[in-house]
Amino acid sequence: MPEKVVIVGSGPAGWSAAIYAARANLDPVVVEGTIRTDVQMIPLGQLAFTTEVENYPGFPFGNIRAFVESAVDKDRHYNLPPIPDHPKEKRKRNSLDQIAPHYAVQGIELMELMKQQAINFETRIISDDVVDVDISSDVKKVMLRNGDPIEAHTIIIATGARANWLGLESEEKYKNKGVSACAVCDGALPVFYGKPLAVVGGGDSAVEEACYLANLKGAKKVYMIVRRDEFRASKIMADRAINHPKIEILWNSVVEEVVGDEETDLVSGLKLKSTKDNSISDLEVGGMFVAIGHTPNTDFLSGKLEMNDKGYLMWKVPFRTNTSADGVYAAGDVADDYYRQAITSAGTGCMAALDVERYLVDQGIE
Ligand SMILES: Cc1cc2nc3c(=O)[nH]c(=O)nc-3n(C[C@H](O)[C@H](O)[C@H](O)COP(=O)(O)OP(=O)(O)OC[C@H]3O[C@@H](n4cnc5c(N)ncnc54)[C@H](O)[C@@H]3O)c2cc1C
Question: What is the pTM of this model?
Answer without folding.
Answer: 0.89
